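2024-03-11 09:14:02 INFO receiving multi-entity request
2024-03-11 09:14:02 INFO entity count = two
2024-03-11 09:14:03 INFO echoing inputs for audit
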Amino acid sequence: MSLPDPTEVRSALADVGYLADDRIAQVVFLADRLAKPILVEGPAGVGKTELAKALATITNRRLIRLQCYEGLDESKALYEWNYKKQLLRIQADSDKDWTEIEEDIFTEEFLLARPLLEAIRSDSPVVLLIDEVDRVEIETEALLLEILSDFQVSIPELGTVSATTTPLVVLTSNNTRELSEALKRRCLFLHISYPEAEREKEILLHRVPGITEHMATQIARLVRSIRGMDLKKSPSVAETIDWARTLLALSIEHIDEKVVSDTLHVLLKYQTDIEKATKELGATVSAAVS
Amino acid sequence: MIDLLTDFIGELRAAGIPVSMVEAIDAMEAVKHINLGERAALKAALGATLVKNARHDEAFEVAFEVFFAHHRQAGSEESPASRSTNGFSSEAGGGGGEADLDALVESLFQSLLQGDLASMEAAARRAVTEFAGIEPGRPVGGTYYLYRTLRRLDLDALRDRLLEAVLADIDPADALDQRLAREDVESMIARLRKEIQDEIRRRLVADRGRLSVARTLRQPLVEDLNLMHATRSDLEDIEDVIEPLTRKLAARLARRRRLLRSGRLDFRRTVRKSLASGGVPLDPVFRKSRPHRPEVFLLCDISGSMATFARFTLQFTYAMAAHFSRLRSFVFIDTVDEVTRYFGPGIDFGEAIGKIATEAEAVWLDGHSDYGNSFARFQERYGAEITPRTTLIVTGDARNNYRPGKPEVLAGIRSQARALYWLNPEPRSYWDSGDSIMSKYESACDGVFEVRTLRQLEHFVEQLSLPGHLTGTRQGTAQPAANIGR
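2024-03-11 09:21:47 INFO inference complete, emitting structure
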């Protein structure tokens, strides 16, 4: 299905458990209309990948995922010739004329489609997720350019494969390095940062069944307070949800000093961060006492 | 609309945001698909198509507010809230401001307490009308009006009152809740401040037109901030940008090796692999060359004249320590000391700075920069550890307090290392003025770079990968340095 308007996008996303804000809904809607990829940037764990998954669900499309890593190359991202099969074919047809064989072995039959080509060749429309695109080297980014702007892949031996249906492309980046201008130019840019306390509360209520309104509010406010500190790694939305689940499992109904210091390790993953947060949250106690 | 958008894009470019032709066209295209009556939609559409870097969001925000705010203002002028504003001021007359002020503060207090944003905004608008005393035609950015309004409103008192009211409902033993309540109040006050600021901006635009206001509001982007005069909050912004930059530098320094052909043919593995293709060696396997581990020595001047910049370089060092296993850092004023141990994993940056300030022995005589002595000490103490794989980076303004500069010592150090770069935070035109002896050192360096802003630092990192620098010869450097100066 196509996306009728931003409000619908938002409520559809909410139905599958992704609470988008206005801007996210707008950009998703525009991406669909303009047939442009979305480049989603933001700190780890704010739901960038989740957005792509939710999009696949609401549009009823298959999700094809390309996980990027350092050293990713053409044969793993785009396509590869199945040379073993080609070799067998050559041996089997050893009596035939070479030009004939040559034509034979460079056909789609011997092509191994990797995620990008697969997304292009798919008969039904798909959602293509290119995850953590900032992890590939700047040179490798060039591989993506053709597919992002024209939705096609050129294979020297075979010609150009164009998309039959326009895929919805989502790229995510943790901004560990600056992406190239060429890549950015081709995308709509969407920066997602940590949600406001209000929205985080909604997310908690939505994602953690059984949590009380009071707890959700308290957790959201506490997390905002912790994010305000100068930490190595601020708690992500996913970690907030984990924390809420933990507290729920411990059947805690009100968070106080002790609960925080006992369960903070769910939220923060560095010892120095935990110490710092405990210290800062603890400091208010002594201030209040004195 | 096209004219307006073109103006807007022009303003973004003037503010330093790179907007390409394609992106401009995209923006026009995007605008067709949205409901123009909705400001948020327009903002999202323009933001997604024109601004591709989260660092530029703030500049975009300001420009957008200036260009597209008037739609909303026109609408709200007829709203009952602002009509009562007008009634308000005429009732009070010209002179008696005090009763007005009290009533206004009271209504602000009530709306903030109840979290009623609409009435808060109305009250903020009223406050601007009453107290900002905007004089038509004055070419100012609005900071003055903001100050005037805030002084009358006395936000500190308002904050205290709010706190008191909020805390009254909270169990005094519950320290955690108290902290949270306090933060709620802070964010409310911040919101009010911003609302007042926005309102002043709207008035200015109505008075003087978009283009002129946009020009006065323009502020340098993070990457163009002068590092020598950065404020603390600037440094915080910079912190976020440094991380990707150090990664890039790490990649650049390691890359030289990768560009070369990877190692010799690995015969055993080639044969093993050929079994899959019936003994035909289709894919020759090469021995992997060992990953190149660049070794970097950083020398930072931390004397008084360099205070802010030193904080920045140390921050940069701190971030770099995560990417280079073989990074050693040194600080100097009139003698040199190694500070590598303060930047290990798990050490907080603030702590590290504190320790360096108190423990590192960078002072020998009087605490005034002495580059000559520092280099000599460095040569003496660590010279033996410099290898042909070592890249040295010196940061400093080369202001030597008229002491002997000993450039020959630096040249000696250079001859042992792979490369030596000098980053100077002063503008090129100040070099060699007064006690600066930059040009004496310049001949001993592979490259001297003016690094006053992050953008220039980025340029430096980029230059590292240029072929001229690969060979380590000195000819290639004059040109890039000139580029950087612009």
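2024-03-11 09:21:48 INFO post-check: Chain A touches chain B through 53 residues (CB under 8 Å).
2024-03-11 09:21:48 INFO post-check: The longest strand of chain A covers residues 62-67.
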